Amino acid sequence: MTTLLLKLGGSVITDKDEPETVDEDALEAAAASLGAVDFDRLVVVHGGGSFGHHHASAHGVSRTDGSTDAGAVRDIHGAMCELNDAVVDALADEGVPAVPVHPFSAAYRSDDGHLVHPTTQLAAMLDQGWVPVLHGDVVTHDDAGATILSGDEIIVALAGNLGASRIGLCSTVPGVLDDDGDVVPEITAYEEVADALGESESTDVTGGMAAKVETLLALDSDSYIFGPGDLDAFLAGEAAGTHVRT
């Protein structure tokens, strides 16, 4: 069976400059696109947007800087669960059999930073015909308290173990842009676009477009970075935005 991994960027489904604000229209549009397509196996991952990033920044927590403050963990994780509820509900309203999966309860980092994210439970969910919906989160980090786990990292952790054949990262831009603002149709090496890549302008503790490109280049799957306008094309198996392949 074909397994599809889709990352909905936090900047797509929230207003990243307004703390804890869902972009209702954008989320409903994305959910409608997913509800209109039949899949063998689908896993959705969403970013933190104005929910997780806002709290993580306030507490000084990132992928490398941890915190042992349980209150910080509750703030970040609680905000992400709230956003996850909104995403799951929107998908369910469109007939998608979505179920929530919270990484804080399932994943952790070892003391060398290696991410351990069991996938057996996700495979069992997929076997039931469900659509697991994961999200960026805090995770326990050996000897460092808790650090941020980004949605892009989750994609990497799941891609190989679930045998994903196609991966999509839906962002607010139509793809990776060159120095002239045009979409780069294909990337096979980071050096091809290194000069043009920049970081997110809004508060983001997980990295910008550069991190996304590096993430996808580490995978063997057919991967794309695209904007909401190309979501339907991606779901239909067509080219969308920037094709990233090794």
List the defining traits of the structure above:
21% strand; globular; 34% helix; alpha/beta; four-stranded mixed sheet; Carbamate kinase; 8 helices; eight-stranded mixed sheet; 246 residues
What does this protein look like?
- This protein has 246 residues and is of the alpha/beta class.
- The protein has helices at 10-13, 24-35, 49-59, 70-93, 120-127, 151-161, 209-217, 231-235, and strands at 3-8, 41-46, 98-100, 108-109, 115-116, 131-135, 137-141, 145-149, 164-170, 186-187, 222-226, 242-244.
- The strands form 2 sheets. It has an 8-stranded mixed sheet with strand order 3-6-2-1-9-11-12-10, sandwiched between helices.
- α2 (24-35) crosses α4 (70-93), α3 (49-59) runs antiparallel to α4 (70-93) and α6 packs parallel to α7.
- The protein starts with a strand and ends with a strand.
What is the number of domains?
Answer: 1
CATH class: Alpha Beta
The level of helicity is: 25-40%
How many E strands? 12
Distance between the termini: 23 Å
Shape label: globular
CATH-assigned homologous superfamily: Acetylglutamate kinase-like
Helix count equals 8
Tell me briefly what this model is:
By secondary structure, the chain is α/β, with parallel strands linked by helices.
Topology:
Blueprint: E1 3-8, H1 10-13, H2 24-35, E2 41-46, H3 49-59, H4 70-93, E3 98-100, E4 108-109, E5 115-116, H5 120-127, E6 131-135, E7 137-141, E8 145-149, H6 151-161, E9 164-170, E10 186-187, H7 209-217, E11 222-226, H8 231-235, E12 242-244
Parallel strand pairs: 1-2, 1-9, 2-6, 3-6, 4-7, 9-11, 10-12
Antiparallel strand pairs: 4-5, 7-8, 11-12
Helix pairs in contact: 2-4, 3-4, 6-7
